[in-house]
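Revision sheet: structure tokens.
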Amino acid sequence: MNQATREFIATHITDDVYTLSLKAKRYPDVDMRLALRQIESRQRYAKKLPEIVANDYWLFPARLSLEQCSSEHTARYKASLFAKLCTSFDSYADLTGGMGVDFYYCSQLFKKSFFIEQNAELCDVARHNFQALPAEILHTDSTTWLRDITHLNAIFIDPARRDGAGHKVSALAQCTPDITQIWTLLIKKSEVVMAKISPMLDVTQAMRDLSHITEVHYVGTAAECKETLLITHQGENIDTQHIVHEDSLEDFVFTTQQEHQTLPVIASGIGAYLHVPSATMLKAAPYKLLCHHYNVAALSKDTHLYTSDSIPTQWHGKTYIVKNIYTTTKNDIKHLKALGNANISVRNTPFTADELRRKIGINDGGDTHLFGTRVASGEIIIIETQPYFGARV
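Predicted:
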């Protein structure tokens, strides 16, 4: 990047990228393609990568790598896990370097780090961005490189979840590299191995495909499970720990055996509050343990909504104040129509949210939230609620 390009980026960092592209001929000394990419990337990812965006020296690669990269929050979380699990910090390898956000935060723990990437452009970007780190940037096949090294303290791998044509794949064995084929080698070569898999993949199946998983971390927010991390580390053989991690909340930790051995608490009625587990908690699925940990009752065995007369502390999800309870009779539907508008969700019902909205005849929006759901008796009810703003909503 020449000085003219660097100054152009600094001057136009908040300007519209399309408008700037129309003026490209006015700036013959500016590498306009590079400049526009940097401006667009810094605007688009200011919330996802605030520290990196604030670093004027950092170069951003093509958009696809940016869309697939970790956020700073999740990258820092991975680094904290390596800091906790590793017994020494001599060497670390990221076998799928990509944009390098995970590498940037995790590698700072170690005396020597290896950034492995098959994309030549991403390697060039990494050499620029990581000059200040004790890092070796290698444009090579990670599996071949792995067989030649002796031992590492930590390995991170994030298999690509798209095939050669760019289509998303749905199985762990279809990702690149296929970690089901090299998992034993990974464990042999490193004290700690961390694999990031798609939140859409079945964790139970992944644990069948990959041996010796000691920890599974579900990382996300109330609205979205952003990452699932599978970890194996050397130490005593214990039951796999499942950890739900959401910012500003205590981690929820459990084992599959604990969930299987727990009996659910089924509600006999609807209390003052309705509690909806976060998307991240739903991915982890400790449905019965939630009842006992938070002192709430499930509306039914298969309805993942909970109720209580008090507010649970550190609840991973949303809490609503129950205003009224309706059936699906014509008279109750008539009363619901008088609301005019409401947000609608359904759980364990034969109809969709859109079908229920059409049945009631109301518009979307407003402060009211209706939950169509099945209770333990098998009856389908509609719960009128409003968000409880003392909790995260």
